[in-house]
Description:
mainly alpha; Arc Repressor Mutant, subunit A; 7 helices; 53% helix; 223 residues
Amino acid sequence: xxxxxxxxxxxxxxxxxxxxxxxxxxxxxxxxxxxFKIAEKLNITVNQVRNMLYRLNEHNLVAFTRKxxxxxxxxxxxxxxxxxxxxxxxxxxxxxKIAELKRMINEENTTGMYVCPSRCIRVxxxxxxxxxxxxxxxxxxxxxxxxxxxxxxTKNYIEKLRAELNEALAAEExxxxxxxxxxxxxxxxxxxxxxxxxxxxxxxxxxKNSKHKPKHKSKKSKH
Length: 223
């Protein structure tokens, strides 16, 4: 299961800006794309391309290799979008966002919120008490807000985030499942390649036995 392009585009838009989306669509699914080719396709300068790529690189969303131009003497960089790191970053950001929204709903339900009639400020109950229920901008009395509609809207948004999170988690689980058999197979093949050492049989060493030693008769000397 591959991560959907809309999810990756949403991530890139959040961390690097709208202007990087065109670059993403150009390099997505490809490997080692020349920055000069990107500039040519997008009709912008190489420096502009590098600025976009550096923004992605700050979040480890691209990898690069470089090659020296023999004629001109400078280095040309080739870029690849890192879908693995993109997936992990999506999972991390979705989980964090869901946790933040849950805290917000809890605050809305337990403490209540107060708002200026002119929408200058919106604060919780403790903050409203500290401000003596007066707006810091227009000095108008703050009113308690009925946040039921907002809470319901936030819950629906959390469900959307959960669906996107599950998609990213499923993609990561599938990647891990695909990696496991390949690793085992490689280890097995490596084991089969290793030569089997033959143990040389040692020849039996005859035991020395004093009983079977030949007796030598000593000759008597004649006088």
